[in-house]
Amino acid sequence: MQYQSQKIALNFYTAAVLLFLVQVLVGIIAALQFMWPDFFILNFNTVRTLHINALVVWLLLGMMGATYYVIPEESETELWSVPLAQLQFWATVLAVSLVVIGYIIMGINPQANTQVFGTLLLNEGREYIEAPRWADILIVVSVLLFLLNCFMTVLKTKKFTAVQGVLLGGLTFLALMYLPGMFYTKSMVKDQFWWWWVVHLWVEGSWELIAAALLAFMLHKLLGTDVKVLAKWMYIEVGLVLFTGILGLGHHYYWIGTPGYWLWVGGIFSSLEPIPLLLMVWDAFRTTRDTRGVVSNRVGLYLTVSHAIFNFVGAGLWGVIHTLPQVNKWTHGTQVTTAHGHLAFYGAYVLLIVAMMYVTIPSIRGVKEFNQSRGYQAFWWMTISMIFIVITITGAGMVQTYLERLFGLDYVAVKAGYNLWFWIFRAIFGVGFLVGVLILVVDVLTLGKKASA
Amino acid sequence: MSNNAAKHLFVWGSVLCFVILIVLTVDTMGKLDQRAPEITAEVDAGKKVWHKYDCIGCHTIFGNGSYFAPDMTKVTIRKPKGYLKKFIMNPRLIKPDSAMPVLGLSEKEADNLMAFLDWTSKVDTNGWPPAPILASARMDKTTGAGQVLFYRHDCGACHEIGGIGGVAGPDLTHVGSKHPDMEWHIRHLRSPEAVVPDSAMPSFDHLTDQELREISEYLITLK
For chain B, how many structural domains are there in total? Predict the structure, then answer.
């Protein structure tokens, strides 16, 4: 590590992996509730809200941590303000804790979720952005402080590198795209229309920009590849991500009450969305192949390339199979979507942040050599489990599509009867995934510590 | 391609795509109100009930949400509103093995929620969800007068026969063995709650005596 202030990344990484653990624990509870709805003190809706909110927040924490590492290195200077970064970190932890307590209170007593100043106090009741309005405002303040700190650091030395340009561009886009979720509309159609601006333009827009920038950063750091070459391909990748992704938003506007032309816009543009993701895979392989000499951080490289592959498979392939309106008419709202969601988030973002941790933590803790076997163990436990989770949910989705949508069987009959074995296997592989996460948490907390002692 | 060219292509291409998105958004916003009924105070209050109880944490609506419980998009067309209201207020009284918990909705909240769900049921969703192919084909093949009436009055939305149909009400595959008395069926169709306590089934009193007799004749053949 060259700059002391990069250490702040560790705070974010620690909070991120702990929240990851929480996410997977509640995920297993949710999986069991598919078989026994009354299994836990909280109902499924609250457990599921915790599952997806923990995911979003820990990935954001991971991205912030990674960015606090990248910016000083790219700008070749210390962070503008470490106390501000610390304040922003602890404020975020506090806000997240308050929101979680609110969800739990609401889960135990739904009547506690009352209207205050025209908004719901504990849970907004909108998927992914359940956090109440007061928390939205705190989140925006936190992200603005974070961006301020990063931009002021860049301005100190004015080294406007391509990586930090795209990284900060993606983060600014991310902050802006949170705003369409922050107002109430009486129409459920308009509600979902703006809600998709947030959800889609995050995960298929700004987050992919961040991913492309971090991918380029990691390949350069691990392999010493020429920045110019990496930057050119990064621009082409993020260009294609946004050319396909922005209007690919249309694939969420097929059936929510929006005009029919969205079937064409969404169908055409979203079908092209896997192309930039495939390009990233090729980029990772080409860069790795061209490298001469030994890579010391093998596990870091392994995770980086795995992220590129599973980003393409999960977000790209598992998305494109049901993105055409002719197919989506039958699969929309089934478990096929759940399967895509799981593999896409795992490949595109979980592996990205885990890779960033393995690439940067050794350097933050000041070690060249560290025990890499735990990193591989965590990766394989998580990846094999996730592949089987996705296979079981995809199977459940196909059964559901045929029986419910084509044959006319009742939703409840399909879920309780025909898909039971899929739920059982999904829960078992969920436990396998938990093993991987536990190994990861231990490794992130201890990696490189012994060697430096 | 030089780095600078790639950068400019990325920046200006993305800006162009975003401008197109904004144009389409403006156009869509202008058209949405014609594709949906008017939003009354009850509909708006019902939407707030939907958010308050985090319904989307289990259900989907317009196909978006949590996939743990049935989609609510056209639910007031598919199921009788009287049944839905009773069910929402106390699911396990109506269906003891239901996965839905008792959330404590007041009667007024349930009425408003019905108004909201009725509103969403009338939104033009480009034909989604599509009618199931096999169930539709089966209705075309019905022969007896009672069977035709059974499907015309959409009894299959709540009742299963031979694995096809809803599970909101009891399975009717062998109802003829359980209740072989035709008069029982006629009385039950006229006033379900008088025959089965706490029944959430709507009354079919508006049918003629002849029609009630024909449906009952069909039901007692299901053995």
Answer: 3
Tell me the average pLDDT across A267-296: 91
Q: Are A206 and A177 in contact (CB under 8 A)?
A: yes
Same domain (yes/no): B7, B45: no
Closest Cα partner for A304 from A246, A364, A357? A357
% of chain A beyond a pLDDT of 90: 94
Q: CATH code at B91?
A: 1.10.760.10
In a domain, B126, yes or no: no
Q: How far apart are CA A338 and CA A365, in angstroms?
A: 38
Is B128 contained in some domain? no
Give residue-wise pLDDT tens across range A142-188. 999 999 999 999 999 999 999 999 999 999 999 999 999 999 999 99
- Residue given tokens 């089966």 in the structure block: B138
Cβ-defined contact of A410 to B166 (cutoff 8 Å):
yes
One domain, residues B25 and B66: no
Chain B 143-172, CB below 8 Å of chain A: which residues? Answer: 160, 163-168
Q: What is the DSSP string of A404-437?
A: IIIT-B-HHHIIIIITHHHHHHHHHHHHHHHHHH
Closest alpha carbon to A261 in A216, A213, A212, A325:
A325
B150 with B204, same domain: the answer is yes
Distance between CA A81 and CA A85 in Å, rounded?
Answer: 6
Q: A231 contacts in B (CB within 8 Å)?
A: 3, 6
Among candidate residues B72, B89, B121, the one where a domain is terminated: B121
Nearest CB to A120: which of B13, B52, B104?
A: B52
Chain B residue numbers with beta carbons less than 8 Å from the beta carbon of A341 are: none
Q: pLDDT tens string for chain B (223 positions)?
A: 899 999 999 999 999 999 999 999 999 999 999 999 999 999 999 999 999 999 999 999 999 999 999 999 999 998 999 999 999 999 999 888 899 999 999 999 999 999 999 999 999 999 999 988 876 666 666 668 888 888 888 888 889 888 788 888 899 999 999 999 999 999 999 999 999 988 889 999 999 999 999 999 999 988 8
Per the CB < 8 A criterion, the answer to whether A12 and A63 are in contact is no
Do B46 and B31 reside in the same domain of the chain?
no
Last residue of a domain, one of B121, B142, B172: B121
Distance CA B98, CA A433 (A): 30
Query: B62 and A186: CB-CB below 8 Å?
Result: no
* B61 and B31 inside one domain: no
ipTM of the complex: 0.95
B127, part of any domain: no
What residue ranges do the domains of chain A occupy? 1-159
Residues B59 and B113 in one domain: yes
Interface test with A, best of B68, B124, B138 (most A CBs within 10 A): B68
- For residue B158, what are the domain limits? 133-219
DSSP conformation class of A204: I
